[in-house]
Amino acid sequence: MKTFAAPKEFLSDIDVEATARLIATAADIALIVDPDGVIRDFAIDRSEMALSGVEHWPGQAWSETVTVESRPKIEALIRDAFAGARPRWRQVNHPSQKGPDVPVLYAVHKVNPEGLLIAFGRDLRTISQLQQRLIDAQQTLEQDYARLRHLETRYRLLFQVSSEPVLIVDGANEKVLEANPVAEQMFDDGRRGLVGRRVADCVDAADGQALETLMTTVRATGRADEIDVRSRDRTMLLRASVALLRRDAGWIFLLRFAPEEGGKGAARSAEPSLSRLVAAMPDGFLLTALDGTVLSANSAFLDLAQLATEEQARSESLDRWLGRPGVDLNVMLANLRERGAVRLFATNLRGEYGTETEVEISAASLTIEGEPCYAFAIRDVTRRLTSVARPDRQLPQSVEQLAELVGRVSLKDLVRQTTDVIEKMYIEAALEMTGENRASAAEMLGLSRQSLYVKLRRFELRDLDSSRDDSDSDDAGG
User: C-alpha distances in angstroms, 64 versus 56, 57, 266, 406, 473?
Assistant: First the structure.
């Protein structure tokens, strides 16, 4: 315990009034408590601490002025003071009628042989607010980090599975920073890798200068452009596309090389099929005829539909696997014919063995080898991060928004989802009003504490350990 070296020499002449002023100044709130735990007097800065009913505390048991879960801590403070133990700071909560409970950090000292106690209290509201802001900031950073990690994963996947050579080039020295496997195979001369080489050395020497000039022009104008170049062995004519991207304080070039039509190595396709890029994507992709008959599908769609081979899907109507037969596909086809695209259409996809998966479908009309068709992208959203808002989970704010949901969400699902959202909003509001005190929030909502815990888990509002009460979050400093 901290103490003065010579208290009798310097403090023996301090009178009672001075002692009282020192005690009141040393704490945000100070209590004089008798051996029975009854408050006899108090000193408080009323301008800083708005404690309801504090003027009635004298003559009242100290444990009756705190919340139920804090009473064992009051008993422990008094017990330790009588036992002569080293003073230990404990956090307790005083109820407040005008807002959340007021957290106070107390330490108790026994001051005379008769058992008179003095409790020193520190207001923790500012610290609690700072802690909450820190937690909110940390959660925001973690969510942003997760989004960036997912974006990087998608970029890496697209970069690696692209069927065309792609190079990332440093804008300052025009040297290759990254190359995908197709570029390594096409441009590597076998002596050393592409990374670190000048991009002009990857093509025919006669075209290298033209490629450097193009990059200089793109750097000056900021607009993407393209030229024709020949491979280093002069056996392939390539269309080189150059785009400029900002990176930190500098720039990088994105170079894509596509074989020219009619040249050696030009892509050829005898029937409608998905590119290797689409085939390797984790989302379902398929091409259909104008009536919704499947022409081609990737492996991700086959997994969702619980099909073994692409032949099982081919020539079948997409309507066979959608959650609302005769409705979903007709709505999407009507929008495709009218607008040419469908975005984030929410529905269920049924597998061949009864499994249902929540999905979002985006579609577009296109022409392949002169034949019109539709392309559908199907994304599984059952494991989507809770921090990402679901379009069909948002409460409609107007009649126009309600009209937009027709054909996307059934009336039964809309009523259920609306009820869930309202219930979640009320629980969040109660937790905010009570300063995350679940006991008070449950009482405010007319729920038992266990029922509130169940709903918190259901809506994934908090990481919750049912054996732990928020009010007993921690004995600060003790």
Answer: 11, 9, 85, 56, 20
Neighbouring residues of 67: CB distance < 8 A, sequence distance ≥ 6: 92, 93, 94, 95, 101, 437, 439, 440, 471
Q: What is the dihedral of CA 17, 18, 20, 21, to 10 degrees?
A: 120
Q: Alpha-carbon distance 354 to 465, whole Å?
A: 35
Pair 349, 336: CB distance under 8 Å: no
* SS3 state at 271: coil
Report how far residue 124's alpha carbon sits from residue 127's, in angstroms, rounded to the nearest whole number: 5
Tens of pLDDT, residue by residue over 47-65, are: 666 677 788 889 999 999 9
Long-range contacts of 267-272, Cβ-Cβ distance < 8 Å, separation of 24 or more:
267/163, 269/368, 269/369, 272/296, 272/368, 272/369, 272/371, 272/373
Q: Which two tokens stand for residue 235?
A: 């056996």
DSSP 243-261: EEEEETTEEEEEEEEEEPT
- Rounded Cα distance between 414 and 409, Å, is 6
- Using the predicted structure, report yes or no on whether residue 39 has a pLDDT greater than 60: yes
Q: How confident is the model at residue 409 (pLDDT cuts 50, 70, 90)?
A: low
In whole angstroms, what is the distance from residue 95 CA to residue 371 CA?
73
Of the candidates 378, 163, 196, 373, the one whose C-alpha atom is nearest the C-alpha of residue 282 is: 378
Query: Residue 269: what pLDDT?
Result: 39
Give yes or no for a contact between 474 and 91, defined as CB atoms under 8 angstroms apart.
Answer: yes
> Are 245 and 169 in contact, with CB atoms under 8 Å apart?
no
Whether the per-residue pLDDT at 477 is higher than 60: the answer is no
| End-to-end Cα distance, the chain | 14
Element (H, E) at 58: none
Residues 301 and 284: beta-carbon distance below 8 Å? yes
Q: How many residues in total does the chain contain? A: 478
For 354, phi and psi rounded to 5 degrees?
95, -5
Q: Are 380 and 304 in contact (CB under 8 A)?
A: yes
Question: Helix-strand-coil percent breakdown of the chain, rounded to 5?
Answer: 40, 25, 35
Q: Which residue has the tokens 């509001």?
A: 429
Q: What is the DSSP letter of 85?
A: P
pTM greater than the 0.70 cutoff: no
Q: Is the pLDDT of residue 415 over 50?
A: yes
- Asked if residues 180 and 191 have their Cβ atoms less than 8 Å apart, the reply is no
pLDDT, tens digit (0-9, with 9 covering 90-100), for 279-298? 777 889 989 999 999 998 88
CA dist 35 and 122 (Å) reads: 22
Measured distance CA(386)–CA(420) in Å, rounded = 14
| C-alpha span between 416 and 149 (Å, rounded) | 33
